[in-house]
Amino acid sequence: MREKTYLCPRKKIRKDMRKIVIAIDGHSSSGKSTMAKDLAKEIGYTYIDTGAMYRAVTLYALRQGFFHDGKIDEEALRAAIGQIHISFRYDPASGRAATYLNGENVETEIRSMEVANHVSPIAALGFVRHALVAQQQEMGREKGIVMDGRDIGTVVFPHAELKLFVTASPEVRAQRRVDELRAKGQEVSYEEVLENVKRRDLIDSTRAESPLRQADDALVLDNSRMTIAEQKQWLLDRFHEAIGQED
Ligand code: DC
Questions:
Q1: Which residues line ligand 1 (CB under 6 A)?
Q2: From the CB of residue 116, how many other CB atoms can be counted at a distance below 10 Å?
Q3: With contact defined as beta carbons under 8 Å apart, do 81 and 178 qualify?
Q4: Whose CB has fewer CB within 10 Å in the chain, the N or C terminal residue?
Q5: What was the pLDDT predicted at 4?
Q6: What is the pTM of this model?
């Protein structure tokens, strides 16, 4: 087979190079998904967005009417969890991987405010996490993945070769989310989004099941004042260090 090379600003990354697991955790709207996606593309790895998986379960629960006055009917969801199948497939229309729920492309729907407002209680359920973590570990068995989420470096892949923890101030993150939603034509107020960001931070970091926390051996990136290009270079440098290609 012909050897394939991927060009990056400083180095050539050969496809036969040692593959590693890159775990990226951090706060919501910290930009970690964009960073993780770009990095995966650059180095020829598979990108897995675990937040999309929790969002897809939430969408399923909303559609089935499992929420009553904002509260999830745990027993109904527990009984249905075996029927929820989530996968990622390449979408030629967008040129990216899209999230599929039981064979349906739900990429746009899982990004709505309605799903965002209901996802935290779903992600706090032990049986949901258990089912999704098992799928995530299976997806990373062959390595060569960039996986982003909240518990990747602590629970899903505690032995990942490279762990990153990404954050930015709540205000910066809320503004980024507003810009993103408005670009998609969804009219939202900054205050509403800031409130959602803060509430999710609190629930995500104080829940009993796999709370969001930084792994002891994670490298921290606060990107409040960094450009996309700077973040990209920072990530590539960390990747080269991790695979043993330091200058
Ligand atoms: O990254 P995101 O905003 O798309 O994540 C959606 C929700 O899922 C968020 O409230 C945190 C939760 N989540 C989680 O608990 N564990 C993960 N590995 C990924 C996301």
A1: 28, 50-51, 54-55, 119-120, 123, 149-151, 200, 204
A2: 21
A3: no
A4: N
A5: 39
A6: 0.86
